């Protein structure tokens, strides 16, 4: 089941410090350390700045958050005391106090802080409590405290609050807590279809898929008249791997190009060519003699799904000049490739690359497409050559450099991978994708672990809840031999995104720690998502693990791996 991102607590109003009170030397040192990914130093300097600015709430809060990001609980506690003295009634302070207690394993203290927070009269208080729970490191500890809050009746009687805490329980893989939350939601909001969808997710996670389907069917009558409910039901079926049912639900109610597109994608994933053929005819017949450009694009994509590249090319060629024309030309090249007209596909890509009348994004994308097609054709040298020509036309373009870096990595040319990613970072020092990709590559393919950690920490500073970055962080901790810490982070990444690469990483760490039954479950989950995932294959070979034969299962969502 696709889950919403954690709710972000609104920022509390903070007083502005006077210019004379700002300790500039310490602040600048902390900022430089933070930008360099040296989080331990950043935590030290930020705490020193907070101490010197004796009445500054903002600096105390910042010092607390940087120390927590650095996993420096000692300095986090010291900064928290400064913050408490300066703003004792802040909701943000209470949330940070609860998070720190969770991280330190002081669950009773965390529960007390959260109970006080949830009892606050401010209607935003539950959001802060949710953020505090999401800030805990150990999913089992967070789930335990969340269960205690539910049993204490602390969750406010608001549907959105119950939804968000329920989603958190699902991300934590805490089926018992999720069951208790959903049971109460059904009792409190018996006629709310959103509750039925959440309960279905909980039942499916617990292995009761038949009951989950019953809940979704019961909510269907509202779907035709309520697009939001329709979308939620489709997402629920998609999470179960039942793309055909998701497509059927999306067919309820009025249709437009967007809903047709979603249905087509779902039916393609379900490999239901017969129903997709019917949708193709329905959409084509509904457009009249001159379909609009968006419909032509969609009909082209459906023709591709149906493996009719010649028809796809015809549809794309019919897209007139305008905002979709460049995309149509890209799709023409891809469809020709699928049709087996490889040289014609490359000619189309080259024509767009050399078309001075097209905008730079379109021409750059034509080089990226050619690189992708060369890769699919098993010609790594030609892939590099295409991307290099793109870089000759668009020197130091981040997307082209990033693509070439990944191509070099697939060829085990780690020196060139690093060179291209560093070029991206010269132009864009805070490019999160490049920071994470370079950090992960150094952690995975070299022994430069400390350097990798600093790069990943820079990415974490920008996006602390990005699943790919959390996975990279856990992986470098594992490579540093910090297995217990690594496992906590990798499990958190798995909770954020069910991805085969992340599952393979969790399985490897568990296996090395001797927890082989648990490891096998993660390896099998990763295989269900993508049996050919490179990280999974490498882990199984490295550890000499033989998985039992895969049981027949419904089709799973395509998994491309977390973006590096």
TrEMBL record:
Protein keywords: Repeat, TPR repeat
PROSITE patterns xrefs: TPR (PS50005)
Matches recorded under Pfam families: TPR_16 (PF13432)
Gene3D superfamilies reported for this sequence: Tetratricopeptide repeat domain
TPR repeat locations: 500-533
InterPro entries noted in UniProt: CellSynth/LPSAsmb/PSIAsmb (IPR051012), TPR-like_helical_dom_sf (IPR011990), TPR_rpt (IPR019734)
Keyword Repeat: yes
Name of the protein in its database record: Tetratricopeptide repeat protein
């Amino acid at each position: 089941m696709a889950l919403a991102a954690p709710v972000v607590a609104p920022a509390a109003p903070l007083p502005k410090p006077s210019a004379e009170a700002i300790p500039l030397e310490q602040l600048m040192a902390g900022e430089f350390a933070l930008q360099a990914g040296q989080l331990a130093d950043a935590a030290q300097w930020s705490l020193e700045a907070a101490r010197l600015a004796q009445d500054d709430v903002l600096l105390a809060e910042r010092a607390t958050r940087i120390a927590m990001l650095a996993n420096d609980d000692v300095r986090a506690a010291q900064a928290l005391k400064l913050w408490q003295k300066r703003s004792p009634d802040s909701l943000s302070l209470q949330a940070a106090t609860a998070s720190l207690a969770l991280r330190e394993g002081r669950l009773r203290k965390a529960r007390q802080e959260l109970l006080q927070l949830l009892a606050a009269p401010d209607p935003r208080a539950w959001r802060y409590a949710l953020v505090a729970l999401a800030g805990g490191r150990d999913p089992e500890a967070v789930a335990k405290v969340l269960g205690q809050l539910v049993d204490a009746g602390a969750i406010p009687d608001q549907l959105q609050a119950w939804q968000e805490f329920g989603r958190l329980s699902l991300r934590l893989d805490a089926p018992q807590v999720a069951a208790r939350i959903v049971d109460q939601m059904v009792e409190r909001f018996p006629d709310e279809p959103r509750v039925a969808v959440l309960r279905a997710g909980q039942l499916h996670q617990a292995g009761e898929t038949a009951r989950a389907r019953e809940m979704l069917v019961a909510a269907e009558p509202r779907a035709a008249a309520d697009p939001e409910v329709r979308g939620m039901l489709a997402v629920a079926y998609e999470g179960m791997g039942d793309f055909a049912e998701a497509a059927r639900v999306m067919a309820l109610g009025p249709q437009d190009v967007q809903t047709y597109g979603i249905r087509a994608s779902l039916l393609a994933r379900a490999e239901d060519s017969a129903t997709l053929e019917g949708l193709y005819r329905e959409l084509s017949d509904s457009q009249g003699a001159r379909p609009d450009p968006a419909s032509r694009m969609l009909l082209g994509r459906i023709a591709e799904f149906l493996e009719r590249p010649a028809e796809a090319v015809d549809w794309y060629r019919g897209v007139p000049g305008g905002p979709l024309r460049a995309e149509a030309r890209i799709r023409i090249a891809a469809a020709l490739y699928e049709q087996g007209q490889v040289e014609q596909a490359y000619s189309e890509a080259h024509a767009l690359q050399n078309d001075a009348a097209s905008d730079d994004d379109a021409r750059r994308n034509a080089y990226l497409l050619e690189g992708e097609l060369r890769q699919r054709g098993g010609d790594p040298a030609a892939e590099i050559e295409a991307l290099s020509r793109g870089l000759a036309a668009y020197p130091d373009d981040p997307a082209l450099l990033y693509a070439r870096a990944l191509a070099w990595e697939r060829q085990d040319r780690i020196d060139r991978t690093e060179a291209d990613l560093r070029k991206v970072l010269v132009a864009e020092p805070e490019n999160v994708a490049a920071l994470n990709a370079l950090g992960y590559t150094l952690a995975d393919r070299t022994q430069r672990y400390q350097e990798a950690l600093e790069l990943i920490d820079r990415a974490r500073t920008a996006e602390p809840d990005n699943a790919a970055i959390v996975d990279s962080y856990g992986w470098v901790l594992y490579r540093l031999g910090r297995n217990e810490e690594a496992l906590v982070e990798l499990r958190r990444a798995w909770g954020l995104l069910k991805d085969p690469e992340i599952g393979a990483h969790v399985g490897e760490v568990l296996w090395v720690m001797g927890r082989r039954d648990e490891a096998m479950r993660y390896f099998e989950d990763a295989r269900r998502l993508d049996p050919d995932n490179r990280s999974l294959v490498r882990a199984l070979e490295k550890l000499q693990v033989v998985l039992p034969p895969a049981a027949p299962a419904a089709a799973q969502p395509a998994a491309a791996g977390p973006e590096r």
